[in-house]
Design the sequence.
C-alpha cells in the first residue's frame, strides 16, 4: 500500500518542485485524448490566444467555471499564484468571462461557482455580479446555494455552509429537470385534473423532490471519500457537476471548464458521455486532471481518496491535524 501523500499544492513551493518533473505539460501545451476527444491544456483562462488554441472552431453548449475566490489569481506572467486587490480580481474575472462568452454557442448555459467572504463585505460575489451586467448577451437565470459544510464551524455566528453558484444563459438553451433522492413528504396542493381532484403526489412526475435553487443533498468532498483528490484544496463534488451537466447538456455536447484544478468537470463529462475541453494554468493541476481521467478509465475509481495522485514522487503528507491523526490511524499496521 502506498503511503506517500501530498499537501495542498498551490502554496507549497517545496511540494511543487518535487511534483513538477512528473507533469507531462508545460505552460502552453495541450494534451489530447484519443478516445473521446477531450483536451486538457496548461493554459491561461484570461489569454484569448490560449482559449482559441484549445477551442479551435468549436463552440460549447455549457461552461462551468470555478475561479479561485479568495482574491488569489494567476496569469501567464506570474510563475505562481499571487494576491490581487478586489479591483484586479474583478478585472481578471472580466477577462476569463469574456473569453468564455466568445466560445459559447448562441444557445448556451454558463455556470460560475463563487464565494462571498462575510468578513470582507461578502466579496467578491457582489462586485462580480455587478461586473457581469456588462455582458449584455447574458441573462441571469438562477442563483443556487449549495450546502457545503467544512468542519464544525463557529458557535458565535450562523455556521458558514454556503457555496454560491451563479447561472446565466446565452440565448435560450434547453433545460432538463433534475430530481434529488429526497422523498416528497409534503402533502396537499390539491388541484382538479380532468374533473378529478388530485393531490400533488399523484400528479407529480417523481416521488422525490427537485433540488430547486438550494442544494442540501450534496456531500462536500473530504479525504474519506473515493472521489477525494489529495493536494486539491477546492475540489467540487462530482454529484453537483453531474447535476449541472445533466440539466444543461445532452450526450455528445461540448462542455468547457477553464479552471480545472482536480478535473471534476472533465470526469463528470466522461461519465456522462459529453466532450470536455479544459485547462489549468498550473502544470500540476493539469497533470492531476489528466491522471484522474486515466484512473477512471483504468480502475473505475473517481479519485484517490487519501492516496497520492503522484505515487512515483516521494512527497510527504501535510494535511490538517485532524485529518493527519485519522489518516495515521488508518495506516497503522500497513507499513
Ligand atoms: C477553485 S479551483 C477549481 C476547482 C475545480 N472546479 C474542481 O472541482 O477541482 C481554481 C483553479 O483555477 C486555476 N487557475 C487560476 N488562475 C488561472 C488562470 N488564469 N487560468 C487557468 N487556470 C487558473 C488554479 O490553478 C486552480 O486550480
Sequence:
Amino acid at each position: 500500500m502506498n503511503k506517500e501523500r501530498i499537501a495542498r499544492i498551490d502554496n507549497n513551493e517545496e511540494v511543487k518542485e518535487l511534483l513538477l518533473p512528473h507533469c507531462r505539460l508545460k505552460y502552453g501545451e495541450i494534451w489530447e485524448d484519443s478516445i473521446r476527444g477531450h483536451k486538457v491544456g496548461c493554459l491561461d483562462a484570461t489569454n484569448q490566444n490560449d482559449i482559441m488554441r484549445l477551442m479551435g472552431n468549436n463552440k460549447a453548449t455549457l461552461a462551468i467555471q470555478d475561479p479561485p475566490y479568495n482574491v488569489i489569481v494567476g496569469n501567464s506572467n506570474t510563475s505562481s499564484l499571487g494576491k490581487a486587490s478586489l479591483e484586479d480580481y474583478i478585472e481578471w474575472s472580466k477577462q476569463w468571462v469574456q473569453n468564455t462568452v466568445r466560445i459559447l454557442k448562441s444557445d448556451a448555459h454558463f455556470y460560475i461557482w463563487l464565494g462571498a467572504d462575510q468578513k470582507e463585505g461578502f466579496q467578491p460575489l457582489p462586485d462580480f455580479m455587478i461586473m457581469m451586467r456588462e455582458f449584455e448577451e447574458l441573462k441571469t437565470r438562477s442563483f443556487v446555494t449549495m450546502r457545503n459544510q467544512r468542519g464544525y464551524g463557529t458557535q458565535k455566528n450562523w455556521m458558514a455552509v454556503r457555496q454560491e453558484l451563479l447561472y446565466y444563459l446565452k440565448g435560450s438553451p434547453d433545460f432538463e429537470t433534475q430530481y434529488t433522492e429526497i422523498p416528497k413528504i409534503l402533502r396537499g396542493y390539491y388541484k382538479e385534473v380532468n374533473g378529478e381532484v388530485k393531490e400533488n403526489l399523484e400528479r407529480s412526475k417523481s416521488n422525490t423532490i427537485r433540488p430547486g435553487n438550494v442544494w442540501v443533498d450534496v456531500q462536500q468532498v473530504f479525504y474519506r471519500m473515493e472521489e477525494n483528490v489529495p493536494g486539491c484544496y477546492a475540489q467540487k463534488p462530482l454529484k453537483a457537476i453531474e447535476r449541472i451537466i445533466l440539466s444543461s447538456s445532452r450526450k455528445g455536447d461540448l462542455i468547457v471548464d477553464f479552471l480545472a484544478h482536480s478535473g471534476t468537470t472533465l470526469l463528470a463529462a466522461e461519465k456522462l458521455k459529453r466532450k470536455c475541453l479544459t485547462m489549468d494554468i498550473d502544470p500540476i493541476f493539469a497533470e492531476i486532471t489528466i491522471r484522474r481521467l486515466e484512473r477512471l478509465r483504468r480502475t473505475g475509481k473517481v479519485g484517490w481518496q487519501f492516496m497520492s495522485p503522484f505515487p512515483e514522487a516521494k512527497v510527504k503528507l501535510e494535511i490538517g491535524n485532524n485529518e493527519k491523526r485519522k489518516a495515521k490511524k488508518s495506516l497503522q499496521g500497513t507499513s
Remarks:
- The radius of gyration is 21 Å.
- Residues 13-180+217-331 form a domain with the Rossmann fold fold (CATH 3.40.50.150).
- Residues 77-81, 330-335 have pLDDT under 50 and may be disordered.
